[in-house]
Amino acid sequence: MYTINNQLVNEVKETLTNKFGDAITCFEVVADMPQLTIRKDKITDVVDILLNTFGFSFLTDLCGVHYPESENELAVVYHLHNLAKNQRIRLKTFTKASDPSIPSITPLFSSANWMERETYDFYGIVFQGHPNLRRILNCDDMDYFPMRKEYALEDTTREDKDDTMFGR
Amino acid sequence: MINDNTFDQTADDVVKSEKFEYNTLNLGPTHPATHGIFQNVLTMDGEFIVDSEQTVGYIHRAFEKIAERRTFYQITPLTDRLNYCSAPINNMGWFMTVEKLLGIEIPKRIQYLRVIIMELSRIADHLVCNSVIGVDTGALTPFTYIFQAREWAYEVFEEISGARMTTHIGRIGGFERNFSQRAWDKIHLFMEKYPPMLKEFENLLMRNRIFMDRTIGVGSISAERALNYGFTGPNLRAAGVDYDVRVANPYSSYDEFDFAIPVGKSGDTYDRFMVRQEEMWQSLSIVRQAIEKLDKLDDKDTFRASVPEFVLPPKEKVYNNMEALIFHFKQIMGEVEIPKTEIYHSIEGANGELGFYLIADGNRTPYRLHFRRPCFIYYQAFPEMIKGSLLSDAIVTMSSLNVIAGELDA
User: Fold this and answer.
1) Which of A15, A95, B25, B401 has a CA positioned 20 to 30 A from the CA of residue B114?
2) What is the pLDDT of residue A131?
3) Chain A residues closer than 8 Å to B68 by CB
4) Rounded to 10 degrees, what is the CA torsion of B310, B70, B85, B262?
5) Which of A1, A88, A137 has its CB closest to that of B57?
6) Which letter does DSSP use for residue B259 in this model?
7) Beta-carbon separation of B357 and A61 below 8 A
8) Interface mutation target, options B3, B249, B408, chain A, most CBs of A under 10 Å
């Protein structure tokens, strides 16, 4: 389990809640990771403050999650790391599945470039301000977003597999 | 991806605007210099590279989607196939993530055994990378000779888990059985025969005039850019930042071991080679220390923590005994207590911080599993690293980054 630097985490919590008020909808510690839930229009500002004021200079991970039961179905999860004080933090934003868009943090972190492309490829979340938002791992002519929960694991659009002869 | 119009557009735009044309060279998906299948389209001004664009995803196997339909044990083969040169490290990282989720305490003996396996695997991966840097400069001899050392490491994995490359080594809570005497014999053989071979490998390449001319000052990246690009592992340490997950967030009792973290200065290819070379010596020292610590431990038998809900009962009992049959069924069908929470755990893989982001919702399969793959993240920096350099420099830079297609695409 990671140890939590309580002083740093409390400072972050105070500054962010004072500055953004109700854009921060939730601040909790899940397992060993402080986790913030942020409204999507403020995400770039929050990441900017974390990077420049609090020294979270490393973007460890950026990925998407699909919660079909929630009202805002698609989530993007960011993991940041303050290398100097060895503190990690997790940020979550949510957006609707019908028109998903979230501001891109590529101007702040160059590593977000491909990670946001992967999230777009898998979930269809459009990152506004991304320099080159197109599919990265799947083929370009794919017209659906495969990691969403409504799609089965096996590709139902395939015509070349004949399960009658080699069926599962 | 490259479609029918890509090259026309480039040529037209350029010819209209300037007097000369840039050349487009396709370092195509299958190329002897790329360690894996990924494409680089280089825009070149003669021999110098002006820009480049990557296409990855040729070996995308949808691991994250598959993982949503697999129980925790069934995900281990997927982790094998991430960085397939050092599969044991990926396996151990995954098991540690699950153990963190379930709150399982691992006894010391098992932690030391895991350290031995992980460090042997790190040595195997760095050997591939360093010898392949040599091959890309034309030096085929060190590559051929040092692979004998990798054979000895692979024999250890084969003795313990049954497989050489995609090992599925270990179990949730430890190992399937205690290391046999044959396994220990093979580990001792490796420890005895490997150091002279590594010394010989060093002599061939490290202070070789041609190698140094080919690699010093080539493909460098500054520490600030490397951090911004999310570099981790030997590539980041070669740029000057001493971030190693084994030291920052120690796991599996790495804080009890005494080892140094080699750090480079300029982040060029030679620094990456040297960092990996020194890391191999440090890994060797760690394995030696682990063997000593194991000798000093009183406990010589524990090979698995007590995790009854993840250990299948022996088959003789399952076929003859009703309780064992029911328990076997319960485990396979997933009627075990799994907490509903989110875990992020990372380990120091051979390429850097390999992270597992696991969202568990109480079912036997994860709700979401995301692999934080170091290769995928730092390969983005490649165009910036080779801008303005020669094509041959780009080849050497690419191999020194240790891009492994399995980890790039997952």
Assistant:
1) B401
2) 92
3) 153
4) -70
5) A137
6) -
7) yes
8) B249
Higher local confidence (pLDDT), A151 or B35 = A151
What residues make up the domain containing B14? Answer: 6-55
From the number of C-beta atoms within 10 Å of its C-beta (0-12, 13-18, 19+), residue B314 rates as exposed
* Rounded mean pLDDT for each run of 10 residues along chain B, 410 residues in total: 64 62 87 82 91 91 92 92 93 94 93 95 95 92 92 94 92 92 95 94 92 92 93 94 93 93 93 96 96 92 89 91 92 86 94 95 92 94 92 92 89
Question: Which residue in the set A60, A135, A139 is minimally distant from B372, CB to CB?
Answer: A60
Residue B347 C-alpha, separation from nearest chain A C-alpha, in angstroms: 12
Neighbours of B259 (CB within 10 A): 18
Domains of chain A, CATH where assigned: 6-104 (3.30.460.80)
- Has the ipTM of the complex gone over 0.95? no
- B321 falls within a domain: no
Question: Are B47 and B140 members of one domain?
Answer: no
Residue B373 placed within a domain: yes
Residues B375 and B397 in one domain: yes
pLDDT at B9: 58
Q: What is the distance between the alpha carbons of residues B249 and B100, in angstroms, rounded to a whole number?
A: 13
CATH number for the domain spanning B264: value is 1.10.645.10
Model confidence pLDDT, tens digit, residues A46-96: 999 999 999 999 999 999 999 999 899 999 999 999 999 999 999 999 999
d(CA B25, CA B44): 7
- Please give the sequence-ordered ranges of beta strands (E in DSSP) within A18-109, or none if there are none: 24-30, 33-38, 58-66, 74-82, 87-95, 101-103
Claim to verify: residue B124 and residue B263 sit in the same structural domain: yes
Chain B partners within 8 Å of A33 (Cβ)? 342, 344
- Give the residue from chain A lying closest to B242, CA to CA: A83
pTM for the model: 0.91
Of the two residues B11 and A149, the one the predictor is more confident about is A149
Give the separation between CA B280 and CA B120, rounded to whole angstroms.
9
**For residue A168, what pLDDT is reported?**
46
Structure tokens at B321: 């005994």
The H or E element spanning position B382 is helix B382-386
Nearest CA to CA, how far is A17 from chain B (Å)?
23
In chain B, the number of structural domains is 2
pLDDT of residue B309: 86
Cross-chain residue pair B380–A114, CB shorter than 8 Å? yes
Shared domain for B198 and B180, answered yes or no, is yes
A33-38 and A87-95: which strand pairing?
Answer: parallel
End-to-end C-alpha distance for chain B, whole angstroms? 18
Residues B49 and B122 in one domain: no
Check residue A162 and give its pLDDT: 66
CA distance B68 to chain A (A): 9
